[in-house]
Amino acid sequence: MKRSVLLNWLPFENTATGAAKRAIELHSRLGGEFSLTAAVTSGFPTGTAPSVRKTVVAPGRNLAVRFSERLPGFWRKAGVSDIWVTDTLPVPAFGSRIRTVLTVHDLRFLVNRKYLSLPRYLLLKLNMKAGLGRADAVVTVSSWIADQIVENYGISRSKLHIVANSAASLPEVQPSADRKYILSVGHLERRKSLHTLILAFAAVAGKWDGDLVIAGRGGLESELRSLSGRLNLGSRVNFTGGVSDKELAGLYAGATCLVCPSVYEGFGMTVLEGLSAGIPVVASAIPPHREVAGDAATWFEPGNTDDLSRVLEQLLSGGVEDNSEMRAHRVKMFNWDDSAEELASIYRQL
After folding, report:
1. Is 235 part of any domain?
2. Residue 76 is part of which domain span?
3. 20 to 30 Å CA-CA from 8: which of 118, 207, 322, 347?
4. Average pLDDT per block of 10 residues along the chain, 350 residues long
5. Cα-to-chain-centroid distance, residue 39
6. What is the maximum alpha-carbon separation in the chain?
7. Distance between alpha carbon 276 and the CA centroid of its chain, in Å?
8. With contact defined as beta carbons under 8 Å apart, do 169 and 191 qualify?
9. What are phi and psi of 240, to 5 degrees?
10. Is 303 inside any structural domain?
């Protein structure tokens, strides 16, 4: 008989986040071996991950639902399961009958309070230690985050597992524009350090006739637009808002280069997407980016506008050596099939 796995997909009211894409990519590959059920809200997109049975357990995630999620009885409405899997906290005290798996994507709340909303910060701050201790297996996305978990919480390495991300599965399309542009992709939030990118672009804009395209949505858009205006960049900084997979694929295909300026990440998924698209990648030299790209990206000091503008000027003038073979090599090191098999192995051991 197949082991039954209940997935806590209540946070995924849309599938645009990296965590949602990861959960869907991995579990879409496990339906043959496990009986998979995802507990979702009524806002979850229909037709997503057809190999996973979806059951609506709440209309949305209001305060009452979020409080109830910590209670084992809340999950009974989704059916009986052998394994309960979550990307968020808290982890209910199910007891020994149900095994639990917690995925930790990053520990940004330990680095800077401003990287999260206050409710999210408090949720993680108050529940992370107990969740790590209660989980039967802890999964994370990079060696660096695994080391940070051990350093900050002292959990046993024996229950800590690294299951890496891969690049998003994007369609093959033609470039989306004729004009040259530098591309940046990601949620418009403080840790992405997009201010650094805009300032660096301003320093090279007079020597290069292309644009800067920032793809993504988020609360900092008005602030970033204001900065672009003060720098007299006018229409040369383009904010796309949210984009479809097809639109994103077109943006990657037509870009002169991808810039990933984040000062904090748990994994370098956007870096990997740029490598997969076959375009030059310029990235901040933070450990997760380094772990993904190795020598296949061009690096700059995180948050350093002068260093980024220097690297961009060198690349845009043709002064950076082509490393397409190395990019292809790094991409082959990360794929969803291998990661899904690693996750299946964890489930088998519980």
Report:
1. yes
2. 4-166+335-349
3. 118
4. 92 83 93 92 86 92 89 90 95 93 97 92 95 97 97 95 90 78 95 98 95 95 96 94 91 95 96 94 97 96 98 88 84 95 96
5. 21
6. 66
7. 16
8. no
9. -85, -20
10. yes
